[in-house]
Amino acid sequence: MKVDISALIIGSKSAIDVEYQTNYNLTDEIDVSSAKIICKGKIFSKNDAIFVDVAYTADMEALCSRCLEPITSVFENRSLDMICDKQANAQEDMQYLLEGKTFLLSEYVIQDLIINNDYQMLCSEDCLGLCSECGLNLNNEKCTCDSISVDPRLSALKDFFADKGGVENGSTKEKNVKS
Ligand SMILES: [Zn+2]
Ligand SMILES: [Zn+2]
Question: What is the extent of the structural domain holding 108?
Answer without folding.
Answer: 2-116
